[in-house]
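DM from R.C. (forwarded with permission)

"hey, sorry to bug you on a friday — could you get me a structure for this? deadline for the figure draft is monday and I only need the backbone to look sensible"
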Amino acid sequence: MWNKIKWYIQRFMIGRNGRDELQVAVLYASLILYAFASVFDRLIPFTVLKIVGWIGVFYSLYRFCSKDVNRRREENRKFLQELEFLKLRISMRKTHKIYRCKGCGRKIRVPKGKGKIEISCPLCGKKFIRRT
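My reply, with the result:
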């Protein structure tokens, strides 16, 4: 019986997105938010947080069962790229400062403690002055 159920699930998942890092992150965040709202519900009614938690769970299921695999992969790639940037930014927060170019949006890393400096974007060439 379990083999038959497993076969049906495998057949259903053919051509679908399945589990990825963004789906798992949204699911965990929404479950933690819902649990937080449930624990502190006696003090203050957190119905809005519970609704947001359920929306996150349903979005996670939507991503899991989506047949638009290319779009879900692109969303996951952007999520992983931002996550790596956040990890890098945290690891360098004492030695470098990161600015975003107003022209093209590229992130530019400059060393801290240099005072006011002129930063030029290597991509578009726009120059701006910032304090480091």
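R.C.: lifesaver. Strands lie at 96-100, 107-111, 116-120, 127-131.
me: no worries. Residues 92 and 129 are 21 Å apart (CA to CA).
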